[in-house]
Each structure stands twice: as C-alpha cells, then as structure tokens.
Amino acid sequence: MGTKEKTLVLLKPDALQRNLLGKIVERFEQKGLKISGLKMMQLSDVLLDEHYSHHKDKPFFTGLKSFMKESPVVAMVLEGLEAVSVVRGMCGPTQSRTAPPGTIRGDFSMSRQANIIHASDSVENAEKEVWRFFNQDEIFDYQKIDFEQIYVEDER
Ligand code: CMP
Hints:
This protein is of the alpha+beta class. Helices cover 39% and strands 18% of the residues.
C-alpha cells in the first residue's frame, strides 16, 4: 500500500550540457514512474528567488542562481506511489562526490552545486513546487498501460 504522489524534478543546466537528459529520463521510465509533465524552461530570477528562498542567506545563493540560468533546464512532474521519496532516493544526496553509486548524482556528477538534478524533498514541498513550475494544462492525467504490471492489486 502507498499513496499516489506527484513530485517535481528539474534536470539542471549541467545535465543538459553534458548530454545526460535521455539517460536520466530513461531511469525514471524504467523504474515505473509515470511522466505527467515534461518541458524545457529558461528560469527567471523571480522563479529562482522563490524556489531557493530558503537558501537566500547562504554564501552559495548567488552562484547557484547564476548556474541555474546558464542554460535552459528540463522540468518534469513524475507520478507514482510514494513518488517523492522514491525519486529523492534515486537522486542521492546533494554532495555528488560522496553520493552512492547507483544514484543519479553518484553516477553522473562530481560536484555539490552542479549536481545534475533537483527533486522535491517532501510531499508538502512537492505540491508547491509542481504548481510553481507547471500550469494545470501542462500536467496530463492519462492511463498508462503498464500500471497493472508495475503495481500488484493490493497496492493500487
Ligand atoms: P538542490 O538540493 O536541488 O537545491 C539546492 C541547491 O543548492 C543544491 O541542489 C545544490 O545545487 C546547491 N547547493 C547546496 N549546497 C551547496 C553548497 N554548499 N555549495 C554550492 N551549492 C550548493
């Protein structure tokens, strides 16, 4: 048993520049997560100030904002049972150098700032972040044909 959740993922400018978008999207597809939204965005100061407001007094805030504007990002909404914690686990911890092998950061990055991916850290924040980056008509509610193979009956 689990709760169906949506979570926000950003594939950061380093993922795009290093040609890793396909490999990362593939991992989420292979895991069995449903893609409910997917788009490319050039992030603005207004959006970044809101998204990283909890980091605004940190020494890395200005550098982080510049990094996130270096190129477009790919924003995704992923859906599944307990999707928030599942996706966080797949990303690994912030510091990529010590992120475990098998995680996205552990396999693809050596940096703390240029750490490839952002994923919502709680169900409460996921709800806010999905609507921060997506409009209602950009999130798709559709039937995925492998649903009944991915979850057994008493999980659905
Ligand atoms: P994320 O967890 O997506 O959101 C906050 C981001 O700030 C984090 O990924 C990193 O990209 C960046 N970050 C966190 N801590 C540091 C740090 N100490 N130095 C530089 N960047 C950081």
